[in-house]
Specification:
Blueprint (H helix, E strand, L loop, with lengths): L5 H8 E3 L12 E9 L2 E11 L10 E5 L4 H13 L9 H8 L5 H11 L4 H11 L2 H25 L10 H30 L1 E6 L6 H9 L17 E7 L2 E7 L9 H16 L2 E7 L6 H8 L6 E6 L12 H4 L5 E3 L8 H11 L16 H22 L4 H19 L5 H8 L7
Parallel strand pairs: 5-7, 5-8, 8-9, 9-10
Antiparallel strand pairs: 1-2, 2-3, 3-4, 6-7
Helix pairs in contact: 3-4, 4-5, 6-7, 6-14, 7-13, 13-14
Length: 436
């Protein structure tokens, strides 16, 4: 519970073993006792006390640690509500922390990133943003702008006073510096998108080429049905796996061939659609059979995309040459494996790592943008930097230049929450789980 009256509500339902007045209890302490209803003990609990302003929300807070179980938890919750508490809205505790000034909006959004992290790198990025690394970088850029902006404002508002004139060279130098910092952040989104969303990977090929066996080998479990019969997979199967700390969204697709019925036709159309939208296309070929026209048609789906060609079933007699020009025209990344025997899997992981430069993503020394809202606002700020430079080059009045410089500050302020509407705030916190 969080809020002005949380301790009053707590006193109605909690009897500590050693009674103390609330004024005597220090923050960051835990008391042992019982939750009661009409003098009947409901559960034996530990209660943590956090006193304003030193709490998550900066308000008075308490946490009841019970033995768990649906019946007990529901009963304690009902007691809290019956005695004056209200159910929290999604993200309300973090929203209060933001509104009360303990964290900025950027840090608040990182809470949900940490909660929903699908890999260690994503969690690490979220923690860095929660600690304020990106907020500090935004503040640094704003300080760079404000040093010149103050002089501009004085020159515009108080022309009668003798102040040091802001020269075009000064402004251009400042704007170039700001643009470089913003562009570096904008470019980091390419890595940030990979860290947050993962690499959407389509596994395509003819029926019985070994797509489902490859999926099972990567997941190290029998997730997809594997038989000697063609066309077992009729729909897509999606799973996440982590490689070098980056999530891979694997999509095992239906085998692509001339459809034998309407259901298979739909599955094949879906396979082609997924291949077109994928970040990485893995084309798997049965190397125990000669290349056929259907294989060549499937390979075309991977052309001009980041792709890997797998020659599967190397434990059998291979009939496809990895140096075949028809393969090389599609991708230089050709590897041999046996999905069923799990041979060559490390080579596949190494190839993915090289393709997406995963080893070059250094979260210890880099600030990485993972949120599309932040990226769009940084892009908008860069556009306003360019407009400001354009007005200077056209020798327009200082007050016109100031409009675009103020727009840059506003764009950056929207990231951290200084210039943001209630609608945006509500939209952001609606994504949170209940409470947190």
């Amino acid at each position: 519970m969080s809020g002005e009256n949380c301790f009053e509500i707590l006193q109605k339902i909690f009897i500590p073993k050693r009674k103390q007045e609330i004024e005597e209890i220090k923050g960051y302490t835990i008391k042992y006792g019982n939750i009661v209803e009409n003098e009947e003990i409901i559960d034996e609990v530990l209660v943590s006390y956090f006193k304003a302003p030193k709490s998550y929300t900066t308000e008075n807070m308490c946490e009841i640690n019970s033995h768990g179980g649906n019946i007990l938890v529901r009963k304690i919750l009902e007691l809290c509500l019956r005695n004056g508490a209200e159910l929290a809205e999604p993200g309300e505790f973090t929203k209060r922390a933001f509104l009360n000034g303990r964290i900025d909006l950027l840090q608040a959004e990182s809470v949900i990133d940490v909660i929903h992290a699908k890999s260690e790198r994503e969690a690490k990025t979220g923690i860095k943003q929660l600690e304020g690394f990106l907020s500090k970088e935004i503040a640094k850029i704003k300080r760079e702008i404000m040093q010149e902006m103050i002089q501009i404002e004085v020159a515009i508002d108080y022309p009668e006073y003798e102040v040091e004139e802001v020269t075009s060279q000064q402004l251009i130098k400042m704007l170039n510096c700001v643009e470089n910092m913003l562009v570096r952040l904008e470019k980091s989104f390419d890595n940030g998108k990979i860290i947050k969303e993962g690499i959407k990977t389509a596994i395509i090929g003819r029926p019985n080429a070994g797509k489902s066996s490859l999926l099972n080998a990567i997941l190290k479990e029998d997730r997809a049905i594997v038989t000697e019969y063609e066309g077992t997979t009729r729909d897509t199967i999606e799973e996440f796996v982590t490689i070098n700390g980056i999530p891979l969204k694997l999509v095992d697709t239906a085998g692509i061939r001339k459809a034998k019925d309407e259901v298979e036709k739909i599955g094949i159309a879906k396979s082609k659609e997924i291949a077109n939208s994928a970040d990485l296309v893995i084309t798997i070929l049965d190397s125990s059979k000669e290349l056929e026209q259907e294989d060549l048609e499937i390979l075309k789906l991977a052309k001009n995309k980041k792709s890997i060609i797998i020659l599967n079933k190397i434990d059998l007699n291979t009939k496809i040459d990895e140096k075949d020009i028809r393969l090389k025209e599609i991708s230089e990344n050709i590897i041999k494996i046996s999905a069923r025997n799990k041979m060559g899997m490390e080579q596949l992981y190494d190839e993915i790592t090289k393709l997406f430069h995963l080893n070059e993503i250094n979260l210890d020394n880099e600030i990485v943008i993972t949120n599309i809202r932040h990226k769009n606002l940084i892009t908008k700020a860069i556009q306003n930097v360019k407009k400001a430079k354009e007005t200077i080059n056209k020798e327009m009045p200082l007050d016109i230049v100031a409009i675009f410089i103020k727009d840059i500050l506003e764009d950056l302020g929207k990231i951290t929450g200084e210039f943001v509407t209630d609608d945006i705030i509500d939209e952001i916190f609606a994504k949170f789980c209940l409470g947190k």
